[in-house]
Amino acid sequence: MSPTPHPPGHAPGAPRDLVGIGIGPFNLSLAALAHPLTSLDTVFYEQRPGFDWHPGLLIDGARVQVPFLADLVTLADPTSHWTFLNHLKARDRLFPFYFAEHLHIQRTEYDAYCRWVCDNLPGLHFGHRVDAVRWNPELDVFEVDFTRPAPDGEAETLGRTHTRNVVLGIGTEPHVPDPLRPLADAPGVPVIHAADYLDHRDTLLAAGHITVVGSGQSGAEVFLDLLRHRPAGRERLHWIGRTEAFAPMEYSKLGLEHFTPDYTRYFHALPGPVRDRLVPAQWQLHKGVDSGTLAAIHDELYRRTLHGGWPDTVLTPGVRVRTAGRLATSQVELHLEHTQQGTRSRLTTDAVVLATGYRQRPLTRLLAGLDPYLRRDSGERLRVDEHFRLVLDPSITATGCHVYVQNAELHTHGVGAPDLGLAAWRSATILNSVTGKEVYPLPARTAFTTFGLHRPPHLPPARESRTLTPLVDQR
Question: How high is the mean pLDDT of the chain?
Answer without folding.
Answer: 92
